Amino acid sequence: MSKKIVILGAGITGLVAAWRLASKGFDVEVVEKQPLGGGIGGSINHGDFIIDHGIHGVYASRLETIPVVEEMVRTFGQDFLTVEKKTSIYFNGQYLKYPLGVKEIFQALPITTSVKCSMDFVSARLKKRLWGSSDGESFQEWVEDRFGPRLYQIYFGPYVEKVWGIPGSQMSSLWLARRVEELSLISVLKRAILGLLVPSYRDNEMRSLQPLTFLYAPKGSGQYTERVRQAAENAGARISYETEVTRLIMDGRRVTGAEIRKGDFREIRPLDFFISTIPLPSLVKMLESIADSETMDAARKLRYRALVFVNLFINRSQVYRDQWVYYSDPAIPFIRVNEYTNLGPKFSPPGQTVLQCEVSCFTGDDIWSASDQYLAEICLASLENLGLVNRDEVFHSTVARQSTAYPVFDVGCEAKLKRVLGFTDKLEEVFTLGRQGRFEYINMDECVWQATACYAEIAHREEQGP
Ligand SMILES: Cc1cc2nc3c(=O)[nH]c(=O)nc-3n(C[C@H](O)[C@H](O)[C@H](O)COP(=O)(O)OP(=O)(O)OC[C@H]3O[C@@H](n4cnc5c(N)ncnc54)[C@H](O)[C@@H]3O)c2cc1C
């Protein structure tokens, strides 16, 4: 008889695991609490407008994921569009093309500030060289150690606080180890300063730091996750929506069953393997009966930053030329604006476009709890102030909320994460995977990669036998 596997969560991680395991003959059930699958990678289309939870390009974000990305594109994405990446940063009242060139960065700053920043940078380098320094624990220390305090105050400090909701002094330098756009910006700035001091540093060299194109499903990211869902179901996996796991049945450190609930219906599912892709703190809560208090406490302290997506529908064919634009100014409510129309001709109906403003917050705070009308109004007022949109062009708005958009890497979180993963990873025949499951700042390619590795491990254990 085939072994039973319960997978929690039907985001890309859970769906890829389900597809691979069901294709290998395992008896797979995916339990998803929402009425639809796809997770953050799913779409929130409106009428003929294609909209996702933020723009979701498909690409390999590191060398190891290239083979799985190629396989996924071969299997699910033959018709994916190749999009030339166009992005900007609004900084100091100007739009700078991204990736940045030396000229653009210093163009945006008064010359005296540019010179002072460069002197700060040289002095920081000298200090580091003469006295050495340990890498600072906080993001602020990390940046100031490399660039001096001025650039931190001008750019990084306000931006980090706006995105993450905590000051850079409380943000761990650990998140810099994640491959994030901000990290590229740091290396770009470093080269920019070097470029100012050493003219032989060419702009072209810096522009080539970022991938210039990415792939996109023609009907949005949700089309990609939907195709994986279909393949998983075709292979025999069952997906139960609006369903939750209320309790795990334990035999020592092994999970032998899961109590699932859909409305008033409850049932215990016996299982051989258990895969969780839901937020790590939620999984630990289910394991309360066997977790020690320190692990429980550490899990409770792992926080996620939430995003509110405010979509403004506009009677104009295009507002930006870019697909997305960053806003670091704390006076502007959004951290980024996405324009899906600029991904391809069929993303919006002719003559119309949609701007998606990403507003970061914590669940339960004033932004998270604000009415949709209020959120649309603050974003619209800000776009008007920026001279981008007129109020009478906007004919509709929608709002979507994502409670676990980004894991927050505050100072000390590394030890907490180690404690929690140390506990979950020791459970028998239990796997916790994906962006939420491992509390990692990862992209879809890395989720697919983790799901594939989990599949290979389970298949290997089965081949080895008891
Ligand atoms: C704004 C933004 C932009 C991004 N852009 C890109 C990009 O351009 N390219 C890229 O590759 N990646 C991008 N990412 C990252 C990408 O979205 C994630 O890496 C990926 O979607 C995570 O998939 P997942 O399955 O691990 O988690 P999720 O998608 O979060 O899926 C988890 C699932 O578990 C379900 N769930 C939660 N709790 C329970 C429960 N108790 N019981 C049952 N089910 C539960 C959820 O409803 C959800 O469906 C972006 C992320 C964000 C936030």
Q: How many helix segments?
A: 16
Strand order of the largest sheet: 5-4-13-14-15-12-16
Helix content range: 25-40%
Shape: globular
Tell me the Rg in angstroms.
Answer: 23 Å
What class, by secondary structure content? alpha/beta
Give me the CATH architecture of the largest domain, please: 3-Layer(bba) Sandwich
What would CATH call the class of the largest domain?
A: Alpha Beta
* CATH superfamily placement of the largest domain: FAD/NAD(P)-binding domain
User: Roughly how many Å apart are the termini?
Assistant: 14 Å
Give the rounded overall mean pLDDT: 89
Overall number of structural domains: 3
Give the low-pLDDT segments.
Answer: 179-183, 200-209
For the secondary structure, the number of strands is 17
Proportion of strand residues: 15-25%
* Biggest sheet character: 7 strands, mixed
Q: What bound compounds does this protein have?
A: flavin-adenine dinucleotide
And the CATH topology of the largest domain? FAD/NAD(P)-binding domain
List keywords for this structure.
single chain, 5-stranded parallel sheet, globular, 17 strands, FAD/NAD(P)-binding domain, binds flavin-adenine dinucleotide, Polyamine Oxidase, Chain A, domain 2, 466 residues, 7-stranded mixed sheet, alpha/beta, 3 domains, 16 helices, 39% helix
Description:
By secondary structure, the chain is of the alpha/beta class. It has 3 domains: 172 residues, FAD/NAD(P)-binding domain (3-Layer(bba) Sandwich), CATH 3.50.50.60; 118 residues, no CATH class; 104 residues, Polyamine Oxidase, Chain A, domain 2 (Alpha-Beta Complex), CATH 3.90.660. It has 16 helices and 17 strands. A hairpin with a 2-residue loop joins β9 and β10. α1 packs parallel to α9, α1 runs parallel beside α16 and α5 runs antiparallel to α6. The longest helix is centred in the N-terminal third of the chain and has 21 residues. The two termini are 14 Å apart. Flavin-adenine dinucleotide binds next to α1, β8, α15 and α16.
